Amino acid sequence: MTWTLDTPSARAALEIASEYADTALLNHSVRSYAFGARYAADHGLDHDEELFYVAALLHDLGLTAPFDSHTLPFEEAGGHVARVLTAGLGWPADRRARAEEIIVLHMRDDVSAAEDVESHLLQVGTSADVSGLRVAEFDPSFTARLLGAHPRAGFGPVFTALVEDQARRKPDCAAASYVAGGAATRIAANPLDA
């Protein structure tokens, strides 16, 4: 399985993510895509692969200094980044809105595949990579190849610090609820870091 998608939009998303995210955050975005795409394949979930890839690669850019908003939750800021990038790529308004929506929903209550398959896949992919949720459902050889190609690079502590910062500065955001719900403990216990 390849960890990238080769379309002009996918290449642009990877280029932007590579420019603004550090190695830990960039590799997390790629792994989130890979876990979600593998989950879709394993469960026969038909989805818009390019839309999902672009959303996955850009979903955490709102955590980076250039795109961190002092008023918006990071997922909403990241959604706006996706909307602007895809406008430049010529995506129609409804497709741009979908990219934004997928990124925003990844931090919301569970979204079923029947409701919104791409949002569901991003939730599955990010949850597997951040806290190890469902990671045991993936073939161990797949996971080992993915981690070999895109190492963790200290992702757990980096991500914990980023979401805790968001929670402190934006106490009404989804990251604050996530942190209050024991995120640091779950992230530290991720079997991918064992």
UniProtKB/TrEMBL annotation:
<feature type="domain" description="HD/PDEase">
    <location>
        <begin position="21"/>
        <end position="97"/>
    </location>
</feature>
<protein>
    <submittedName>
        <fullName>Cyanamide hydratase</fullName>
    </submittedName>
</protein>
<dbReference type="InterPro" id="IPR006674">
    <property type="entry name" value="HD_domain"/>
</dbReference>
<dbReference type="InterPro" id="IPR003607">
    <property type="entry name" value="HD/PDEase_dom"/>
</dbReference>
<dbReference type="Pfam" id="PF01966">
    <property type="entry name" value="HD"/>
</dbReference>
